[in-house]
Design a protein that fits this description.
The structure holds two protein chains of two kinds. The radius of gyration of chain A is 21 Å and the shape is globular. In chain A, the strands form two sheets. A six-stranded antiparallel β-barrel of chain A has the order 1-2-5-4-3-12. Chain A has a six-stranded antiparallel beta barrel with strand order 6-7-8-11-10-9. Chain A is an alpha+beta fold. Chain A is built from three helices and twelve strands. Chain A starts with a helix and ends in an 11-residue tail after the last strand. The chains are: A alpha+beta, B mainly alpha.
Chain lengths: 274, 165
């Protein structure tokens, strides 16, 4: 390495570390907010322009008509699945409440804030999207984000004045307390680098079948209970293992998010150790 | 003037990479167009220009992606250092060397991003990342080298006579 390159490396490294520290401390928040706000129309336009090509690549071999039809059916299916899950959940809840008359309803009417997705994290090790709502609109870190159909998208991770980055449930660092609706078996739905969801900590004795609906359980306080996550797409069990290997197919089309809803009426809990 | 053009180009590429490009997945990963552009820039236009353009690219990407500002800039440093290998002339022909260097640069870039994530408290699965992210990303980025390198070479009329493809 030449001395010139050495000096350059040290200088750029120092600048990058300084920026990292300032960014983590939130000092650069207003500046980042301004830059992303200025660039969001361009990013929006680029996304819209690329959509036909992206559709072509992903639906290669299909006609445009089939692609549109598939998209519409998927949205409708997602909405109906969410509706069915919600009704089932209400029914179970009603049964439980009728048995426990003294239990009060603690969840107020849920309030949502619609937001547009205008950017995605380009790194291959993070799954995040940027939405055009931020602190000024009432978005706070940890708030839950769902699709228009009501299925789980993720949580607001970094919130700036006019926009926020949402960590998707498929992110490798994401973990959501969940349960299988049919059997009430509880576990944790985690993301991975392959963008697949797996349900962990499900004991071998737990009853889980392909097609079962997976919902948030509400345990831990990070997510409200009863939000649909997806359906079980594969179950593998081995007598040697303590837990089952369960793959969950997210109901939301997370790679094609355009509009999402931020659940503003739910304040996530930050639980401390016992 | 060349650095103004470079600044506009890296800003556009950063915007493109954080929007349109994320709709395209090959081998399960997104291409890192910024990395490919900067490496091609260093190979076609030289280390001196790359030393100015690489921090610009890191800054532009840092402002528009979801990572803390400075992460992309830090992850792009090895790219410039690796370009110094060119001076050693181990491989005859810059294009072949560019393909080799993009594989190494991708490995370095993704590793640094993972280290930053780990330091900032996130869970990182090192081996899972290597097979599912780093190797496919290196291949996809290598596939992008010919068009980006070629376009940059064609656009560098001032240097073309001095240095053949």
């Amino acid at each position: 390495m030449s001395s010139r390159t050495g000096v350059w490396t040290l200088a750029v490294m120092a600048l990058a570390v300084l920026l990292l520290a300032l960014s983590r401390a939130g000092v650069l928040g207003p500046l980042e907010n301004v830059v992303l706000t200025v660039f969001s129309p361009l990013q929006n336009a680029l996304t819209r322009i690329s959509e036909p090509a992206a559709d072509f690549v992903s639906d290669i071999g299909r006609t445009d008509q089939l692609s549109d039809e598939n998209q519409a059916l998927r949205s409708e299916n997602e909405r109906l699945n969410a509706e069915v899950a919600r009704l089932r959940e209400n029914e179970i809840r009603l049964q439980q409440l009728s048995q426990l008359l003294q239990v009060k309803e603690t969840n107020p009417e849920q309030q949502f804030l619609a937001a547009n997705v205008f950017a995605r994290e380009p790194s291959n090790v993070k799954e995040m999207v940027a939405i055009d709502r931020g602190k000024r609109d009432g978005v706070r870190e940890g708030m839950v984000v769902v699709t228009e159909g009501g299925s789980l998208v993720g949580r607001a991770a970094s919130v700036y004045d006019d926009y926020a980055w949402v960590t998707l449930i498929t992110d490798p660092d994401s973990a959501v307390s969940a349960m299988v609706q049919e059997s009430r078996a509880q576990g944790v739905v985690s993301g991975s680098y392959s963008r697949r969801l797996t349900m962990e900590f499900l004991r071998q004795a737990a009853v889980v079948h392909e097609g079962d609906v997976v919902l948030t359980s509400g345990i831990g306080g990070g997510f409200p209970p009863g939000i649909i996550i997806g359906r079980v797409s594969a179950v593998e069990s081995s007598p040697q293992e303590v837990f089952k290997d369960v793959t969950v197919e997210p109901l939301a089309s997370l790679s094609r998010l355009e509009t999402v809803l931020v659940l503003t009426s739910f304040a996530p809990l930050e639980l401390q150790g016992p | 003037m060349r650095y103004v053009i470079a600044a506009i180009l890296v800003l556009f590429v950063a915007a493109f990479q954080t929007s349109a490009l994320t709709s395209f997945r090959v081998l399960g990963v997104h291409a890192n167009l910024m990395l490919v552009l900067l490496l091609s820039w260093a190979m076609v236009r030289g280390l001196e220009e790359a030393m100015v353009v690489a921090p610009m690219g890191g800054l532009a990407l840092g402002f528009l992606d979801g990572q803390p500002l400075g992460a992309a800039m830090l992850a792009l440093i090895p790219l410039v250092l690796l370009t110094e290998i060119r001076e050693a002339r181990i491989i005859q022909g810059d294009f072949l060397l560019a393909v080799l260097l993009i594989l190494l640069s991708t490995l370095a870039y993704e590793t640094i991003i993972l280290i930053i994530l780990r330091v900032t408290g996130e869970t990182v699965q090192w081996w899972g990342t290597l097979s599912r992210v780093v190797v496919p990303a290196a291949i996809v980025n290598a596939l992008l080298v010919p068009p980006v390198y070629g376009l940059l070479w064609l656009g560098s009329r001032d240097l073309r006579r001095a240095r053949p493809l």
